[in-house]
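Subject: sequence -> structure tokens, single chain

Hey, anyone have a minute? Need the predicted structure for the following. Not urgent.
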Amino acid sequence: MLPTNRFKDKHILVGITGGIAAYKSCELVRYLITAGAEVRVMMTRAAQKFITPLTLETLSRQPVSADMFSEKEYTGTHHIQLADWADAVIIAPASYNFIGKLYSGIADDLVTTIAAAVHCPMVIAPAMNVHMWNNPILQRNIQALEKSGYLICPPEEGFLAEGYSGKGRLAPLHHLIQYLYKALHPSPKNLQGKKVLITAGKTEEPIDPVRVISNKSSGKMGFALAWEAFARGAQVTLIHGPVHLPSPAETETVSVGSAEEMYEEVKKRIKQTDLYISAAAIADYTPEAPLDYKMKKKSDITTLRLKPTIDILQRVGESRRKDQILIGFAVETNQPEKYAKQKLVEKNLDLIVLNNPREAGAGFETDTNIVTLFHKNGCSKKLPQMPKLDVAFHIFQFMEKPE
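Reply:
Had a minute. Here:
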């Protein structure tokens, strides 16, 4: 999961409807609480057959709303109060029945009545059997809700409760969080209709079948940029080297190994790209003649001859369209500002992001970063240490308004 301060002090209303996936809502509530959000939970009667309100009350530290007319508390305008309280709402899991009622405007229990009164962004995360998911009536309802402004976090394919595989499993936690991140975003449409291409992670240059030249990049910064571009409404493609990160939702992801492979994938897409962000830590050198067998320790080969890899950002900068936006990264340890500004000009970039891996909390393999942004118009901005997802937000903000 990519840490962020976006959820801190936000009011998030979690709705749970009937389905075996209801137990997964516990993980969602726990995450949001640890991320600093204030969480309230509402449940249908069917949901309570799968998980108890006490469990959700323990996790959220708040009473669970379950009865339209509770005998224990005043409920006259309870549904309006919760709807007004929320900054974002997520229904996870959302059953076939709930989606049908929401589409039809039916409000016959507490959850559907609150949903009818909600006036903040709402994420719908369906979970059901594959045949129910493929039902044309359900698909019509989903499409209509999406056109009405609801955020639909699609289910994933996998092993179902019925004992066979198919699409219908509740989306994984990181996808639910990604959609909530979008729901709370202040500019969810400012890249709508734009194509964003991002490279992320390290590359590996083969020495022989078992050894490579590489670096410490985790890919977290590039993946954070993909989340941010998605949250702003862009069509996102993420080309990444070897990483141990889950793929973002609704993003075309392409896995590559070497710098050459990454360049080939970039070359296929760059002409159709509106914004290109080179966040990958691409190896500068590759072996001249990689072996097709494992080199022995007592080999006569004591010198490894290297040649430069393709400079992808340089190639893209040389052939860029006038209306394209190019953003690069500079990892520097000595005279960092000098070399970052030099790279900004030499690569023909609009913006460059400088970070120094020697600074605590910056660079590779960390959840946070400390960066300075340099725009081609001469403006610059130093950011304090913050989660990489929040750094991504500021990169896009500075790109839009460099001042």
